[in-house]
Specification:
Blueprint (H helix, E strand, L loop, with lengths): L11 H8 L5 H13 L8 H26 L1 H7 L14 H17 L4 H18 L9 H25 L5 H21 L4 H7 L4 H5 L1 H25 L3 H23 L1 H30 L4
Helix pairs in contact: 2-3, 2-7, 2-13, 3-5, 3-6, 3-7, 4-9, 5-6, 6-7, 7-8, 8-11, 8-13, 11-12, 11-13, 12-13
Keywords: Cell membrane, Chlorophyll biosynthesis, Membrane, Transferase, Transmembrane, Transmembrane helix
Protein name: Chlorophyll synthase ChlG
EC number: 2.5.1.62
């Protein structure tokens, strides 16, 4: 008598949902900011730029999403049971297998784009695993977890875009703006925590809304988003770019108007503010990148 066992394989649609393509945009946009800020024409570099976009979005960020969903499957069973892993559409240990596979593919592509890109990608992947995986699990504390996400989603992606174009370490002004926008992104990450407060409390995740309370965390998110932009505006003025500084200032004022409504009802308006306010935030990023390009920063 023979027994045939069939290993259950996830459907491609479930895998794509697990990779969360909607989350790829912010780092791909930041990568594009890095490319633009270099001030160099695409020319023969366009295949490398395309590879960099694939690295930042469909590989690195997708890896972080799979890793997070695998180690967060018990929390998601409470907050969002319809997700691919808790719903069973990604069966067994396939979530872990996919996380390992995407990590390997990310490193393989990054290794073809230069030492600085490989280094940034490797650090980003380490942070992605440390963010979700025990025993470190940075996401257990909103201060550390949000910082890890912010620096990888914005700073490393921007740095990678510039490094791909330049073929080495970018100019200090490029790195400075990448760092500042990463700091502001910490506030953006806090906005994402408002939708999972109940599950975080029940599972011991100390997100900032849990630690500080809803109102204090909402105020902090707005301040953390705004202060780096004020510094960017001052830098642009100092670098002789008043028009771009004025554009970033106008975008910041518009964010402030949205923030007033958000602060009146943080839980109800967090997703709304994240959608509209972050759009204005990333528009300021590209405006700043264009300003750097017009400065002719040394490669």
């Amino acid at each position: 008598m023979s027994v045939t066992t069939t290993m259950q394989v996830p459907a491609p649609s479930a895998v794509l949902e697990l990779l969360k393509p909607i989350t790829w945009f912010p780092p791909m946009w930041a990568f594009a900011c890095g490319v633009v800020s270099s001030g160099l024409p695409l020319g023969p570099r366009w295949p490398v730029v395309v590879a960099g976009i694939v690295l930042c979005g469909p590989l690195l960020v997708a890896t972080s999403q799979v890793v997070n969903d695998w180690f967060d499957r018990h929390v998601d069973a409470i907050n969002e049971p319809h997700r691919p892993i808790p719903s069973g559409r990604i069966p067994g240990r396939w979530g872990l297998y996919l996380a390992i596979l995407w990590t390997g593919m990310s490193l393989a592509l990054a290794s073809q784009l230069g030492a600085w890109v490989l280094g940034a990608a490797a650090v980003g992947l380490v942070l992605a695993w440390l963010y979700s995986a025990p025993p470190v699990r940075l996401k257990q504390n909103g201060w550390w977890g949000n910082a890890a996400c912010a620096i990888t989603y914005e700073g490393f992606a921007w740095f990678t875009g510039a490094a791909v174009m330049i073929g080495g370490l970018p100019d200090w002004r490029i790195v400075t703006l990448a760092v500042l926008y990463s700091v502001g992104a910490h506030g953006i990450m806090t906005l994402n925590d408002f939708k999972s407060i109940e599950g975080d409390i029940r599972t011991g995740v100390r997100s900032l809304p849990v630690q500080l309370g809803v109102d204090a965390a909402a105020r902090l998110a707005c301040i953390v988003m705004a202060v780096p932009q004020v510094i960017v505006i001052a830098l642009l003025v100092g670098w002789g770019k008043p028009i771009q500084a004025a554009i970033v200032a106008a975008l910041l004022v518009a964010q402030g108007g949205l923030a007033v409504r958000f602060l009146r009802a943080p839980i109800a308006k967090a997703t709304w503010f994240s959608g509209l306010g972050v759009t204005l935030y990333v528009a300021g990023m590209m405006t700043s990148a264009v300003a750097l390009a017009s400065l002719g920063v040394p490669a």
